[in-house]
Design goal:
The chain is α/β, with parallel strands linked by helices. The protein is 32% helix and 18% strand. It is built from 12 helices and 14 strands. A hairpin with a 3-residue loop joins strand 13 and strand 14. It starts with a strand and ends with a strand.
């Protein structure tokens, strides 16, 4: 019999809050963390709206001291979320080497861009010095696997350490890989998720020139209120809003969790990954349908048993249309009854961290038996699902699904089940 994989802890840092509780309360309140930022100077950036975690930059009092020499913000965000999730799991109160074997704890943290903000900083410093010499911490801070490496070091964990760089599916792929380490017998626990901070002119302006980012042009309803810029599934959606953040889940085999008496928050009953093999940026409907069906089948779950679908829902014209079509095809008649929402209206698109943040929201939905809304929503008659418009909704939830799709045609699905309850 296959070992069950359970969630025993979760943590997050987002533009809505510095921990999961603040993020979750903001989501349920229908609040947006997106706004115009002075640091996004229009002399350098083509867009001035984003979802930044303010006051969390390296060099501030809130930085992670153990990685102070590494000025890539994504590493600091990953460390903060990992420490929260580790504490939430109860493992931080147990003695390493006695209660659990640190060699059997895997770390898997994904990112799309890693430390590109540090690269931008170092290019500026070198130019001001008129020197070809860059700082000695540039390469360690730039490489994508450094978040996993620093979390391993900071928490004293010596199991497998991996860092999928799979665009907007990176965090979800990291969670799936953590589950695979457990299912294979390689580890008893896994610290997994995603972290991202990519607010640099090349990245943000590159997305803008691709026409992927929302634009607060005159006449747009976000022109006066930047919090309205991201509006998934809405008739006037016009692109995503970049954000940053991190979210981490602590997974365990059920055997290990029961042995240590650790509460089970949810069960990860299914996961799937595939590739479109289709286009560098545009999602492929058929490949995503295949992925979701295979994820459900592998978990032994019928489509009509899914109580809530947490959507990728980027607020772009193409993604939201394709994803709506996918949901209709995979879930059939049940699609009309199944609530669907995207939290990107509230937290923006955190790229490689997005799917991990959404996974943490799914865990909290199961714990609290409530679904977060799709905010800033105005109906699009061609997208005719129940998108939980603008207000959170309590509901009896047993099984929830989250899906994410990244540039390069890399896709991910996660299937969670309610944990222990009376």
């Amino acid at each position: 019999m296959l070992e069950r994989v359970v969630v025993i802890g979760h943590g997050a840092v987002t533009c809505l809050g510095r921990d999961m509780d603040a993020t979750w309360s903001g989501l349920l309140a229908g609040r947006s963390g997106l706004k115009r930022h002075d640091s996004l100077d229009l002399d350098r950036f083509l867009r001035d709206v984003g979802g930044m975690v303010e006051g969390f930059n390296p060099g501030t009092p809130d930085e992670e001291a153990s990685v102070s020499k590494l000025e890539a913000k994504s590493i600091h965000l990953a460390m903060a979320a990992a420490r929260m999730a580790w504490a939430d799991s109860g493992l931080d109160a147990l003695e390493s080497g006695v209660a659990y074997d640190p060699h059997r704890v895997a770390v898997s943290i994904g990112s799309a861009f890693g430390g590109q903000d540090l690269l931008e900083l170092e290019i500026g410093r070198a130019a001001r010095r008129k020197s070809l010499a860059y700082g000695p911490y540039l390469v360690p801070g730039l490489i994508i696997n450094q978040s996993s490496g620093q979390v391993s070091q900071g928490l004293g964990l010596f199991g497998p350490s991996v860092s999928p760089a799979n665009a907007c599916a990176a965090g979800g792929h990291a969670i799936a890989m953590g589950a695979m380490f457990l299912r294979s017998g390689e580890a008893d626990f896994a610290v997994c998720g995603g972290a991202e901070s990519a607010f640099t002119p090349p990245i943000m302006n590159g997305f803008a020139t691709m026409k992927a980012l929302a634009h607060r042009r005159l006449g747009d309803r976000s022109h006066e209120d930047a919090s309205l810029a991201s509006r998934p599934f809405s008739v006037d959606r016009g692109g995503f809003v970049m954000s940053e953040g991190a979210a981490i889940l602590v997974l365990a085999t059920e055997t290990a969790a029961r042995r240590l008496g650790l509460p089970v928050q949810a069960e990860l009953i299914g996961w799937g990954m595939n590739s479109d093999g289709h286009h560098m940026t545009s999602p492929n409907r058929d490949r995503i349908v295949h992925l979701l069906r295979r994820t459900l089948a592998t978990a032994g779950v019928r489509p009509d048993q899914v109580d809530y679908y947490n959507a990728h829902g980027t607020s772009t014209v193409v993604n939201d249309k394709v994803e709506t079509e996918v949901v209709k095809e995979v879930f059939g008649d049940h699609a009309r009854r199944m609530p669907v929402s995207s939290i990107k209206g509230a937290v923006g698109h955190a790229l490689g961290a997005a799917s991990a943040i959404e996974a943490a929201a799914c865990v909290r939905s199961l714990l609290d038996q409530v679904m977060p809304p799709t905010i800033n929503y105005l109906p699009d008659p061609t997208l005719d699902l129940d998108f939980i418009p603008n207000h959170a909704r309590p509901a009896p939830l047993e099984v929830v699904m989250s899906a994410s799709f990244g540039f390069g045609g890399t896709n991910n699905a996660l299937l969670f089940k309610r944990g222990d309850h009376d």
